[in-house]
Design brief:
Elements lengths: L6 E10 L5 E12 L2 E6 L11 E11 L1 E7 L14 H13 L5 H17 L2 E7 L4 H14 L2 E5 L1 E2 L13 H15 L6 E3 L2 E2 L7 H14 L3 E5 L3 H10 L6 H6 L10 E5 L5 H10 L2 E4 L1 H6 L7 H6 L3 E4 L11 H19 L8 H13 L16 E4 L12 H11 L5 E6 L2 E2 L2
Parallel strand pairs: 1-4, 5-6, 6-7, 7-9, 8-10, 11-12, 12-13, 13-14
Antiparallel strand pairs: 1-2, 2-3, 4-15, 15-16, 16-17
Length: 426
């Protein structure tokens, strides 16, 4: 047993067993051995009596949260131009700001602010877009490694339909840049891993996608990108890839859409039935980003449909389409958006429940990283001890009630203690 990560945490423990079942153990014991959960107990077994006890009686203890979709370079300009829709926002806000990361000094300053706040947030695992700039991407990876968080980071690839100042020369040059990045960072990190990141089909030529498919097969890397976020974007893909059956088929054509390739597609707001079925068959992860979809007027994803088909669904902040890092906030907004969708579309899809969105933010998204997002025995030990002191209540609440109001009322940094893989970050 590794004494550096062995610990027992006492508190009011909540975790998902599946999308419908929330386990609650008031005044329970959570045991960590060798960076993994050994289980949750009403009474501490004799065999664990010698492990150091951290007593947080009366505090909520939950698994660490996973953010499946963040644009790290956009953190510096979150909250700007939120009256625009996606494509106009990219051209007038996102692309000009991301170009600043060609300057490593600026990148270090901006990424330091981002990583410091991410470390203090409820997030323990995250999948991040960087920019196309190699030095800046490596700076981000260095800072994340120092933070103790576990992350996937992607050097963005894009060689068309973007400003000249943010466009790679062509598909072959963009692929060489990815290979250079992989070579320069190979073996350099314990907690940061690379992920292939074609920005989206409109910004990636067929040649670039072909080369990324070759790189994926050679290096066995996961993939992240965007899918069916905005009607105008979808129509654009239809023009650029007239041979494809639907947006997701344009990724699948190049072998970058699930199956043996772990894949995250963000948004999935306007997926036709064929696309949903392909995602289900291929095990594609859906990163639902409710705040971003509202801010950029993209619409409301049919998450109930995805969950009812046992598809893989997690949550994303989508900084800076979204403006806050807290996945607790994303949980609450996922419920709210699902209610609005049902009211405005009349599609008959029931609103999401608290149990479902908590699952999405923990076990649902966490499973992209392996056995992550739960306290059942054998899962990697990511945990949060929550601070409810700023939201007192005149009545005695159940543990479930306390958790539910925490989703809606907590601030981004209301975390007393945070653990990743058994390591105590603070």
């Amino acid at each position: 047993m590794n004494r550096d990560t062995a610990r027992v945490i006492k508190g009011d423990i909540c975790y998902s067993k599946d999308k419908n079942n929330l386990a609650i153990v008031p005044d329970g014991y959570l045991v960590c051995e060798d960076g993994r959960s050994a289980g949750v107990f009403d009474r501490l077994p004799q065999s664990y009596q010698e492990i150091p006890l951290e007593d947080y009686s009366g505090k909520l203890v939950v698994p660490g949260l996973t953010d499946l979709h963040i644009h790290a370079p956009q953190y510096a300009f979150r909250g700007f131009k939120m009256d625009l829709e996606l494509l106009e926002w990219l051209n007038t806000s996102a692309f000009p700001e991301e170009a600043r990361y060609a300057d490593p000094e600026y990148a270090r300053k901006a990424y330091s602010l981002f990583v410091d706040d991410l470390r203090k947030s409820p997030t323990t695992r995250a999948c991040l877009f960087a920019t196309l700039h190699l030095p800046a991407t490596e700076i981000l990876m260095d800072l994340l490694e120092e933070s103790g968080l576990v992350t996937f980071v992607g050097k963005v690839s894009m060689d068309r339909n973007c400003p000249d100042y943010l466009r790679e020369e062509d598909g072959d040059a963009a692929a060489r840049a990815v290979l250079d990045w992989l070579e320069e960072t190979a073996g350099a990190y314990r907690h940061v891993r690379p992920i292939l990141t074609p920005r989206f089909i409109p910004a990636c030529s067929d040649r670039l996608m072909e080369r990324l498919g070759e790189i994926q097969r050679e290096h066995r890397l996961p993939v992240q990108s965007h899918l069916s976020e905005n009607p105008e974007e979808i129509a654009w893909v239809r023009q650029l890839a007239p041979w494809s059956q639907f947006y997701g088929d344009a990724y699948d054509h190049f072998g970058l859409f699930g199956g043996e390739v772990p894949t995250i597609m963000a948004h999935c707001v306007h997926c036709p039935s064929q696309e949903v079925e392909r995602m289900r068959e291929k095990g594609v992860y859906i990163a639902h980003c409710p705040q971003s979809n509202s801010n950029l007027a993209s619409g409301a994803a049919p998450v109930r449909l995805f969950l009812d088909q046992d598809m893989r669904v997690g949550l994303g902040s989508d900084i800076a389409g979204g403006t806050v890092l807290s996945i607790f906030r994303a949980m609450a907004e996922a419920i709210q958006v699902s209610k609005l969708r049902g009211r405005l579309t009349g599609d008959g899809l029931k609103p999401l429940t608290m149990e479902e969105v908590f699952y999405m933010g923990t076990l649902g998204g966490g499973s992209f990283f392996g056995k992550v997002g739960s306290f059942e025995a054998g899962y990697e030990f990511d945990a949060l001890v929550l601070d409810e002191s700023r939201i007192p209540h005149p009545q005695k609440l159940t543990v479930r009630e306390r958790l539910e109001r925490y989703l809606y009322l907590s601030g981004e940094d209301w975390i007393l203690h945070k653990y990743v893989q058994g390591r105590k970050l603070f």
